[in-house]
Amino acid sequence: MSRRQGTPQPADLVLTVTPGTSAPEWCPACKAYTRLAGDLLLLEPGGVTTVGRYAWCQVCDDPRFPKENPRV
Ligand SMILES: [Zn+2]
Predict the structure, then answer these.
(1) I need a labelling partner for 68 at 20 to 30 A (CA). Which of 38, 45, 48, 58 fits?
(2) Model pTM?
């Protein structure tokens, strides 16, 4: 077993992904501004990086309002 050298372990490195400020967006399915969209931010010790976007519709993505009604 040989010890690996020259590669310091980032013991204190904490990466956190958090949603940024969200804003209402147009949902083509609901034809209304029922979507919330925003940036996904990666919080690093050195700063904040945008890693993507998220979107969530309060109607389409709500399990209380299923898209398909089996009784139809
Ligand atoms: Zn929707």
Answers:
(1) 38
(2) 0.56
- The rounded Å distance from CA 68 to ligand 1 centre is 13
Residue 35, both tokens: 């979507």
pLDDT at 62: 77
Phi, psi (degrees; rounded to nearest 5) at 42: -105, 115
d(CA 26, CA 66): 19
Give residue 63 CA to ligand 1 midpoint distance, Å: 12
| Per-domain residue ranges of the chain | 16-57
Q: Which of 64, 59, 41 is nearest to 51 (CA)?
A: 41
